[in-house]
Amino acid sequence: MAEPYELYYWPILPGRGEFVRLVLEEAGVPYRDVARLPEEDGGGFKPLLAFMQGERPGQPAYAPPILVHGELVLAQSAAICAYLGERHGLAPAEPGKRMQALQLQLTIADVADEAHDTHHPINASLYYEDQKDAAHKASQHFLDQRLPRFLGYFERVLERSGRAWLMGDTLTYPDLSLFQLVEGLAYAFPKGFARAAEQTPLLLALRDRVAKRPRIAAYLASDRRLAFNEHGVFRHYPELDLGD
Amino acid sequence: MAEPYELYYWPILPGRGEFVRLVLEEAGVPYRDVARLPEEDGGGFKPLLAFMQGERPGQPAYAPPILVHGELVLAQSAAICAYLGERHGLAPAEPGKRMQALQLQLTIADVADEAHDTHHPINASLYYEDQKDAAHKASQHFLDQRLPRFLGYFERVLERSGRAWLMGDTLTYPDLSLFQLVEGLAYAFPKGFARAAEQTPLLLALRDRVAKRPRIAAYLASDRRLAFNEHGVFRHYPELDLGD
Questions:
Q1: Which chain B residue has the Cα nearest residue A95?
Q2: What are the structural domain ranges in chain B?
Q3: Closest C-alpha among A6, A9, A12 to residue A226
Q4: How many angstroms separate the CA of residue B99 from the nearest CA in chain A?
């Protein structure tokens, strides 16, 4: 299919859409980031809401990000990253290794979910201000117990790989997502992340290696890259960046 | 590869391992459910712990379930289900549709995670008894807002499919997982689930259709099938089954 890619995601936050953007950018393929385009170009919120309200044909999506590619309508960031990665040489070819790349992507998504749930432990549909006490407790446990284990896990994967990237000598889509995860955690919990990352030099080196990829470096310097903020998955609430 | 499958998962709860077992059972392939075998047959907790402590070669796993197939070590239930589904005719062949099946599987996993977090909103590593107040609030929001939306989503997918199964005329692995999700929600929240499911007749029909598959029916009647209990993802705490 030679149709261009269309990405539908909330325009004001990097969130889970950013995992998809990084694959598109590293692949060097053109895409329309629909909700960030002007309304007169068919952009804005409305085309995104049309999906959420079931007005567009194709497989229903529970939530954005949504990728449209010709007839294909695909949701779930890990599935979209796998789809794009496999099409553009950013995924292993062998079925077992292809699934191991997906395994890593899913664990990255799990960490992102837990990081999100530190500020929304009771429910995502309630305001942070209405669950601050629970958020305080959740953040403490996340920083004390979960974050060191999660970062240590990826460090171990890189140790076993023994190469530049998670899956060996070739960059694959979970490397890009792991970069975004590390950046997000460092933004949300500057103190807590710095403490845990003292034990994970390979992970920090991978983060730097991704940032220096020519296409990624150009993207990060462009206005296509959205800054982290307090609407997204990774939010910096200083009162939640606990510890000594 | 003609090597037999080995599944490593906690032996006392269905949990996320059950999504994998259902694919293995519907495929009709032999497998060793290692942690449930006697120690003298190489079973028990120890071989599972060897993975968790990094003593086994292969890609590290953050958590069970873990599938071993020859040289392949694969974690994350959605990745394992996709791997098995693709090998045994329980996944679409076309790349876009293959990813849509994965999309559905990931949304099922998201619902399972949220159902788990109703009893463990602050952190999975704390006891339920230490987060009961937050669990009460989380369950209320889950039953009032999230559950009807989630069930309604799968109902809409089945409506659009217009066929017996999520992806059309042929059963695929997310159908099996959706069965398990519905069974788990009905176990955990008998009142809350019954209320929400009044609006989702297609979903209930799919649940019944899966249960009647000859291999699944035989499995459900066997002692290989683990009953739901209060150690797993779906737990029945009557005080959390809220609403009128």
A1: B83
A2: 95-213
A3: A12
A4: 6
